[in-house]
Amino acid sequence: METIKNQKYAATMALIMGTLAMLVSFMAWSSIAPLAAAFAPKLGFTVGSGAQKMLVAIPVLLGAIMRIPMGILSDRIGGKKVFIGLMIFTLIPLFIIPHVTNYSVMIWVALLLGMAGTSFAVAISYVSVWFPKEKQGLVLGIAGMGNFGNAVSALILPTIIGANKDIQKAYTFLIVLIVVFTVLFALLTKEMPTDKNKTLAQALSVAKEKDTWYLSLFYMLTFGSFMAFGNLIPTLIGKGNINGFVIATNPARVLVVAGLWAAAFSGIATLFRPLGGFLADKILPKKMLGLVFAGMLLLLVVMAFGNQNFAVLMAAILILAVFAGIGNGVVFKMVPYVSKSNTGSVTGFVGAIGALGGFIYPFVVAALANLKLSFIVLAAFAVVCGLVLWLVFFRGSDTIVENPRV
Questions:
Q1: Beta pairing partners, 245
Q2: Per-residue pLDDT tens over the stretch 278-325
Q3: Mean pLDDT of all residues in the chain?
Q4: Element holding 246 (H helix, E strand)
Q5: pLDDT higher than threshold 60 for residue 137
Q6: CB 266, CB 31: distance < 8 Å
Q7: How far is it, in rounded angstroms, from Cα 3 to Cα 9?
Q8: Residue percentage of the chain with pLDDT more than 90
Q9: Quick check: 124 and 335 in contact, CB under 8 A?
Q10: Cα–Cα distance measured from residue 80 to residue 372, given in angstroms and rounded to the nearest whole number
Q11: Does residue 132 register a pLDDT over 90?
């Protein structure tokens, strides 16, 4: 009986602390986007420029690529050790950023900051081992709410720096948060069970599984949209207007308002993620994904042809957050079924390619310099995902998850 209680306590604390540690790590990871306008005069770029989009996207790049080795590392040596080490490493760029005055140097520091984004792969690997598969849709949906760090950053960091745009205040706040949660994680959690005999070749074997790549494609649409729009919204309205609609005239107010919109998008997507996981526990995940892709396609078409109307554009973006959040939860219901002993590895691959969508899409917007065309490109990608889902999971023999209750 005592052992069962200990196991329940360990599982509960793994879920709570894994979620919260990812939240503060995501706050650090996404901290540049809502403050980009404050960095502009210091680093010598103009608000809304390609240089700003590059600076915002760079942390996403390393956060995507490094999810694969970090997920594998968590499976092999334990998620607790890896998470603590990751949070300590994150302190390095947080200390440096307020003191950087050169754009080129800032790009390299922003790249280092991207490591905080790998917390997703570590958290999912760590949390998933404590719960049975039939509960993992909801559990991993809850753990994925650590993504809410994006919304929290967008909501509070512009307010913290104030009218005088004191970036130091924001990063001091983030440093304190990371230190506190590193200590709490070390004290309150147990290390997960690991297979120390597992070889690197065994961990990488998930790359041979076709389902790893299908789920990666789907996550590139759902999570890629989450990351891209969460980061792009402050850039799109950072000048105080979008397509002629005036948001605000006071520069400090613009930062706050842009942050509120970005926080609303990220917050909605994050809150709906557990619902997606819960529904995928009850309804066949492929059916859920079909509805998600159809909804995202419709909304992207509305955004493409209604972007001249601010109310229509932002309403569609916020509803898109609902579908993206549900889709994120559904995809990660399916992840543990690809390879039971390599959940961290699968999470790393799927999470990496999903986050790459968040890295690539801002460059699509910048390159096309046309909101209508860029939304059409993303809508075309939603069509591709829908076709793959139909051909492989509905007409084909691939199932991943079969739910006898449906």
A1: 242
A2: 888 888 888 899 999 999 999 999 988 887 787 888 899 999 999 999
A3: 82
A4: strand 245-246
A5: yes
A6: no
A7: 10
A8: 28
A9: yes
A10: 45
A11: no
Give the integer Cα–Cα distance in Å for 289 and 168. 42
Task: Determine which helix (DSSP H) or strand (DSSP E) holds 226, and give its type and residue range.
Answer: helix 210-236
- Most confident range (mean pLDDT) of 56-60, 153-157, 168-172 is 168-172
> Are the C-beta atoms of residues 62 and 188 closer than 8 Å to each other?
no
Give the side-chain half-sphere CA count within 13 A for 110: 27
362 three-class SS: helix
CB atoms within 10 A of CB 126: 31
pLDDT at residue 138 tops 80: no
Alpha-carbon gap, residue 223 to 242, rounded angstroms: 24
What are the structure tokens assigned to 376, written together? 């059409």
Tokens coding 37: 């306008």
Q: Is the pLDDT of residue 240 over 50?
A: no
Q: Quick one: residue 367, left, alpha or beta (phi over 0 = left, psi -120 to 50 = alpha)?
A: alpha
249-282 pLDDT per residue, tens: 555 566 677 778 888 888 898 889 888 888 888 8
**How far are the Cα atoms of 27, 32, 115, 174, 185 from residue 87, in angstroms, in the given order?**
12, 17, 9, 11, 10
CB atoms < 10 A from the CB of 5, how many? 9
Q: Considering Cα of 193, then 353, then 392, then 320, what sign does the dihedral take?
A: positive
Look up residue 32 and give its two tokens: 């540049």
Contact between residue 341 and residue 199 where contact means Cβ atoms under 8 Å apart: no
C-alpha dihedral (103, 68, 347, 287), degrees to nearest 10: 80
Instruction: Return d(Cα 209, Cα 212) in angstroms, integer.
Output: 6
What are the backbone dihedrals phi and psi of residue 241, each rounded to the nearest 5 degrees, phi first?
-155, 160
**Is the separation of the CB atoms in 131 and 139 below 8 Å?**
yes
Output the pTM of the full model. Answer: 0.76
CA separation, residue 138 to residues 210, 272, 275 (Å): 24, 11, 7
The full set of domains in the chain, from first to last, is 2-191+199-394 (1.20.1250.20)
Round to whole Å and give the CA distance between 286 and 283: 9
